[in-house]
Amino acid sequence: MIRDLLHAYTAAVLPFRLGAAVLPAAEPQALQTQAMLAGRVRQALRVAERAGRPHFLLLGAGDGLLADALADTLPDGVTMTVVELQPERVRQAMQQGRLGWWQRAGRHRLVADASPWAVLVLLAQAGLDPRAATMMLHPQLPEDERESLRRWQRLFAGAHAVFCCADHQLGHAADNESGHTAGHPLSHTASLTLGLIVHPDEPGLEDFFAQVPAWLHEVVVVWDAPQVPAAAAVSAACAVPVRHSARPLEGDFAAQRNSVLALCNTEWILFLDGDERLPAGTWNALPVLMKADFRRAVSQRNEAAETEQAVHAAGQASCPECRSGMEAGSVGGFAFPRWTRVGDAQTCRAGFGLWPDMQLRLLRPGTQTRFENKVHEAVRGLSGPVAVMLTGHMDHFSHVWKDPQTLAGRLSVFDDAAGRTGMHRLNEEYPGVPCAVLRALEKDAGPIGATEHGTGGDPACKPDREVCLVLPGTV
After folding, report:
1. For 229, which of 131, 165, 200, 410 could close a Cys bridge (C-beta 3.0–4.6 Å)?
2. Which InterPro entries did the record assign (predicted)?
């Protein structure tokens, strides 16, 4: 099943070329004779045998010959995954009649995307734990590609996939596409404000406010206007209090978000744009995430890896036996994959960074927290490490709800804010992946073995869990 999902993603991304594909040739001297190829295969097999791990990651496809040989010779108990950040390499190899195993039924996998984040999230959601994988850089890589894959390898090896169980009294939506959120008792929920920066002409605002669950503290809106507009009346049906302020955008999105920060006094702040929505399952996960102590969980995970005992220590922060004595709220922010929906809203843009399009939006701000950059804002000065959610996402409906002219106008605002550099372009030919594929990966996300052993021996925890990836260098 997992192989089929990864295959569907890569198959959707591979046919699309972004501009002219110009790549230096793979270095043929590395495998220029059959003897050299056989030697590399023997080397890989020795490494895999010594490691005794169930997964073998070949970083880079090269010309396809080494991957083909390994697909034929790796032991039955070892699954190979070829990771390629240059999809053109895969296309070139396939044009030479190689990598045919990828298109046939079997256990081996190929994951190709120009986005390192996409490859990281896909493998994490597929349950590939770096502790269970042997990694090998392809010998044919040009130096720039070798360095890119080394950076990805460090990110993959350093990220910690951590389970966080829901408190048994909190609800969890099994259907992440449901339009209703479960109620969470306030006694179990950290205080949260929803922040919105918006133009008065943004469509669908009534629906935006209708999504807000009653357990939030309040909503803070900063309008792109000289004064609070009449459009503010659409918030009347919101389930929680709404505070309105106004400030002309003037091409500075960071300043707008900082204005929201200045108006909030809760422990946590969630930022959404007017054309974004959280599915019910993600809303229901927020109290779980905000109450978890991920630094403790990561520490326990490392201890478990060192002693090779009880992966229960990977840390369900909400299980009774794991939660005692923890300092809640050790994570400074959570980033969410953003699905840019297109067409009938059942397809998500993908490839070249269009997915997962990570958005750092759930923040536990400190005194130094601020947004920087007028467009494509960056968060600085968070109060703790950053984690990426693997079992939830946010939806982006701009391409579904807005006509091309409106979208072009919006992108022009971004271009002006960026000084007309890095211009945004509409392209209906960008790759798309069925949302059902991404949803299935979300549903099954988690490190190998963690579903069975990572719940503190409490079967009641198993259905109610979220999985996050704590990023290296942030703990």
Report:
1. 200
2. Nucleotide-diphossugar_trans, SAM-dependent_MTases_sf
